[in-house]
Amino acid sequence: MPTQYSIFHQNMRVFGGGSALRNVGYDDAMSEISSDLGVNQRILVAGFTEINNCNSTAAPLEDFALTLDPGLTKVYHFAIGVTALNKTKTPEYIAIALYKEVSLNSWGRVLRNSDKTWKIYHQDNTLLMPNGDWAADSRGLAYVAITFKGTKMIIGFIHNMYNLGDRSGAFTAIPKMADEIRKTEGGAWTQAPIYIGGDFNVAPRTFSSRANMSAVYAEDAHNNPENTTSSNAYDFWLYKADPTAVVHVDNNDAQVHTETRDVPNGLSDHAGISLKLPYW
Fold this sequence. Notes:
Blueprint: E1 4-15, H1 20-37, E2 41-51, H2 58-68, E3 72-81, E4 92-99, E5 103-112, E6 118-122, E7 141-148, E8 151-159, H3 167-185, E9 194-199, E10 214-216, E11 235-240, E12 254-257, E13 272-276
Parallel strand pairs: 1-2, 8-9
Antiparallel strand pairs: 1-13, 2-4, 3-4, 5-6, 5-7, 7-8, 9-11, 10-11, 12-13
Helix pairs in contact: 1-2
């Protein structure tokens, strides 16, 4: 059976890395997810959102990534926002792990400015909030532009805040963010497929046809979006195709992994999600 490659996202529920018991729980859950995926499915890119420290979480996240897939050997942190009351303190981060054979061509963040526009911060120091008039109480998008087996892709992750910021506005802006990322990367990247996974804290929605972006999610027995929290389908993928593509992803390629949805044992209130990619 040929090797199948997927991407993965997990909201970590205010993860700081300091609890040994919680770290063991997450590692065990990642092992179970790895077994569910099977030996013929590899994780090309994994995103972990709602990370609260880039120092104490670095080692645990590297362990989780390796447990999920031993090929996930490179982990990068991206500062993507702070709350207004903690503007001088530790930012929230997104961690992105890459498969060992992936070429990282570029990277960036899209952060909300105080004038309510979204700005790309391209190839800067991702461990710091950048100089600029970015808005507190908002969380941005982190992305990597990669090449694997000759295919170029842009893969991003986001934690769309539930109680702070503008959930609906941030979600609605994502197709424009994707267009700006393509434009910023330039060249062949203007045609590259874009996949954005996350905890959107809104249900999957249909964009206008002009946006050329669709939500992709696992379906339950009634063909509705499968819940990823106890009662909502908040974790899914957004997909913007290469205009010349002949293969595409659809809901049959998406999967929910409930092993990590275990608040009583210190894990997340969100399940993990994966998406099979239609290449190779």
